[in-house]
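Work Package 4 report. The design task specified in the project plan requires that, given a folded chain encoded as C-alpha cells, an amino acid be chosen for each position. We show below one input record used in the internal validation round.
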C-alpha cells in the first residue's frame, strides 16, 4: 500500500523543482525482483505506451526510469559503413510530450547523423535543461555519494565507440541498438537512503513554466494514469503477501533455463592468443584485451511465437548471485532495417522492416567514471576505478585468502594494472586542469561473489569549458577493456575476435543535467535481441562475453581459465544449475 501521499500531480506554475507524487512499498521486494514484475504490470495496464524501463543499482543508490520525455535510439546505418569518412547512424528520437494522453504513440522522428553530431545534440539538450536541475541537490560535494536527480540514463555500446576511434579499420557493428539514452523526468527512487523497500515517484516540471501548455496538461494526465497503475501494482503485491502464510517462504516463479554455449573451443582461444602474442612481440601494443562469446536462444512456446522467457526474468537470480554494485537493466523497442541481399543494399525492394526488442542486463562490478559537481565551487570532478587483475574466489576461507594474496603479490597483474592507469591518466589529461590528475589508490584488492579484482583509483578536476558528456564520449571505449595504445588495440581486437561486441564493454549509467553522473564498464553483461516479423517473435538471441588483458608475460592456460572464472557463475545461474 502507499506509505505516504504528497502533492499528487499538481505543481506550481513558477516552480521548476521536482514534485514527490507518492511512495509505495511494493511488497518490500528488492529492486532486482521488483523490476520484472513492474514491467509486466505496466505492459498489461497499457501495452500501447512506449515504456522504456531502465534500472541502475548505482552502488546502492538505485533509480528506475519508466517512460522518458525524450529518448534517442541509435542503430547502425549499414549503407554508409563502406565509406569510413562519412559514416552515419539511424537516430530515432521519441518525444513523449507531443501526445495528448498516455495511450497515444509518441512523436517519432528518425534522422541520419554522425556519431559526433549526435553527441553535440545531447550536449546542447543537456545544457537547455541544466538550469532546471541547479537547485535539486544543493548540498552536493566532492565527497558525497552520487545519485540520479534529473538527466539522461542509458548506455553507449563498445562497437560505436571503437568505430569512432578507428573509422578506417572497418570495425563491425552489431545489428542492434548501438546506443540508447533517455531523458527521465519521471522515475522511482528509494524514499529514504536507509529504506530501500519504499519507492517514491518523482516528477520534474520540464515545460515552459510561464505557460500552462498542452504539454503540461498531457504530463499531468500521464502522471495521474501512471499513479493509478502503481497503486494497482502495490495493492496486488500487498494482497499477495497477506494471502500467503507468513510461515511459508516466498517462491518466485523461475524462468526457463537458458543455456549459452561457448563460440570458441579451447584451440580457437589458443590461436587468437598466439596471434595476440605476435602483435605484442612486434611492438604494436603493450596490452590487448582479448574476449570470447557465449551464445544461446530464449525458449518459445510451440508455434505461437510467444516467448516463455525474457532476459529480465533472470535478473533476480543474477543479482542475488553477484550483488554487482554497478548492475543495470534496460529494455527498448526499436525498428530496424535488414536486407534480403546485402550486395544490393540500395534497392528499395530489398529492405525488410523489423520491429524488435533489445534487452541489456549488466552485472558489472566495474566503475568507469563518476562525475561530481561541487556546489560550493561550481567545479566538476571525475573519478575512475579501472579493474585489471583477477583471481577466483576460494572454496574455503584459507584457499580464498591464498588466492587473494597471490593477486596482491602478482607482478604481472600489477604491470597490467599500471598500464591501464597510465592510459586513463592520459585520457583524462585531455580534459583535466593541469596538475589535477591524481592516483590516490593503486593496486587495491576488491572481492566479489566469484572473483577478486585488482582496482586502482584515478581522480581529476575538469577544465571549466569541458562538458562531462564530452569527456565520457571522448574516453570511450574504456582502456581496461581495450588495451594500450587504445586505437591500435581496438583494431587488433576487431581482427582477432571477428565478431562485434555490441553493448558489451561499452558503458551504462546516467548523466544529470548539472554534469554529475556515474557510468559503469559493461562487463559481466548479457544482451538479448528479440526479432519480430508480422507481430510474431522469430528469434530471441542472447550473448555473453568474457575476456582479459593479454601481455607478453601472459600464460594462455591461465587467461583462458580467467574467462571461465569471470562468467562461470552467470552461466550457471542462467542454466539454473545453482541452488539459489
Amino acid at each position: 500500500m502507499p506509505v505516504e501521499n504528497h502533492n499528487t500531480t499538481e505543481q506550481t506554475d513558477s516552480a521548476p523543482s521536482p514534485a514527490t507524487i507518492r511512495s509505495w512499498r511494493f511488497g518490500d521486494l528488492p529492486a532486482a525482483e521488483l523490476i520484472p514484475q513492474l514491467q509486466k504490470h505496466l505492459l498489461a495496464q497499457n501495452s500501447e505506451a512506449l515504456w522504456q524501463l531502465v534500472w541502475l543499482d548505482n552502488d546502492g543508490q538505485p533509480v528506475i526510469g519508466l517512460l522518458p520525455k525524450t529518448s534517442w535510439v541509435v542503430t547502425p546505418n549499414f549503407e554508409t559503413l563502406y565509406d569510413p569518412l562519412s559514416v552515419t547512424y539511424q537516430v530515432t528520437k521519441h518525444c513523449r510530450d507531443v501526445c495528448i494522453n498516455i495511450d497515444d504513440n509518441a512523436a517519432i522522428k528518425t534522422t541520419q547523423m554522425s556519431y559526433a553530431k549526435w553527441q553535440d545534440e545531447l550536449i546542447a539538450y543537456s545544457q537547455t535543461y541544466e538550469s532546471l536541475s541547479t537547485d535539486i541537490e544543493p548540498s552536493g560535494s566532492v565527497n558525497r555519494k552520487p545519485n540520479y536527480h534529473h538527466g539522461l540514463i542509458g548506455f553507449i555500446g563498445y562497437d560505436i565507440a571503437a568505430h569512432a576511434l578507428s573509422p578506417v579499420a572497418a570495425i563491425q557493428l552489431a545489428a542492434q541498438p548501438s546506443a540508447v539514452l533517455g531523458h527521465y523526468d519521471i522515475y522511482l527512487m528509494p524514499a529514504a537512503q536507509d529504506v530501500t523497500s519504499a519507492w517514491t515517484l518523482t516528477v520534474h516540471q520540464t515545460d515552459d513554466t510561464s505557460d500552462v501548455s498542452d504539454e503540461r496538461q498531457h504530463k499531468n494526465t500521464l502522471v495521474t494514469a501512471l499513479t493509478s497503475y502503481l497503486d494497482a501494482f502495490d495493492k496486488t503485491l500487498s494482497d499477495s503477501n497477506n494471502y500467503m502464510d507468513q510461515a511459508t517462504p516466498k517462491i518466485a516463479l523461475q524462468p526457463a533455463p537458458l543455456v549459452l554455449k561457448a563460440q570458441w573451443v579451447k584451440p580457437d582461444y589458443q590461436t587468437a592468443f598466439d596471434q595476440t602474442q605476435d602483435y605484442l612481440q612486434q611492438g604494436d601494443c603493450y596490452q590487448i584485451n582479448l574476449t570470447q562469446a557465449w551464445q544461446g536462444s530464449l525458449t518459445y512456446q510451440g508455434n505461437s511465437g510467444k516467448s516463455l522467457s525474457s532476459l529480465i526474468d533472470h535478473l533476480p537470480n543474477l543479482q542475488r548471485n553477484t550483488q554487482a554494485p554497478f548492475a543495470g537493466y534496460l529494455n527498448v523497442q526499436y525498428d530496424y532495417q535488414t536486407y534480403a541481399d546485402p550486395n544490393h543494399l540500395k534497392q528499395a525492394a530489398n529492405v525488410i522492416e523489423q520491429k524488435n526488442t533489445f534487452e541489456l542486463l549488466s552485472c558489472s562490478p566495474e566503475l568507469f567514471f563518476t562525475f561530481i559537481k561541487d556546489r560550493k565551487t561550481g567545479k566538476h570532478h571525475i573519478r575512475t576505478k579501472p579493474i585489471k587483475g583477477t583471481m577466483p574466489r576460494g572454496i574455503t576461507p584459507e584457499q580464498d585468502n591464498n588466492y587473494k594474496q597471490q593477486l596482491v603479490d602478482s607482478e604481472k597483474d600489477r604491470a597490467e594494472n599500471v598500464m591501464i592507469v597510465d592510459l586513463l591518466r592520459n585520457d583524462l589529461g585531455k580534459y583535466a586542469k593541469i596538475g589535477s590528475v591524481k592516483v590516490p589508490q593503486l593496486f587495491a584488492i576488491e572481492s566479489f561473489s566469484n572473483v577478486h579484482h585488482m582496482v586502482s583509483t584515478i581522480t581529476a578536476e575538469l577544465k571549466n569549458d569541458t562538458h562531462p558528456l564530452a569527456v565520457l564520449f571522448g574516453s570511450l571505449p574504456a582502456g581496461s577493456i581495450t588495451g594500450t595504445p587504445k586505437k591500435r588495440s581496438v583494431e587488433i581486437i576487431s581482427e582477432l575476435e571477428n565478431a562485434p561486441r555490441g553493448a558489451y564493454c561499452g558503458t551504462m549509467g546516467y548523466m544529470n543535467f548539472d554534469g554529475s553522473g556515474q557510468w559503469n564498464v559493461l562487463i559481466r553483461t548479457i544482451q538479448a535481441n528479440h526479432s519480430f516479423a508480422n507481430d510474431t517473435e522469430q528469434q530471441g538471441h542472447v550473448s555473453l562475453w568474457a575476456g582479459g588483458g593479454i601481455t607478453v608475460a601472459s600464460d594462455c592456460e591461465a587467461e583462458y581459465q580467467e574467462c571461465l572464472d569471470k562468467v562461470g557463475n552467470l552461466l550457471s545461474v542462467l542454466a539454473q544449475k545453482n541452488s539459489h
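The chain has eleven helices and 25 strands. Validation will be extended to a larger panel in the next phase.
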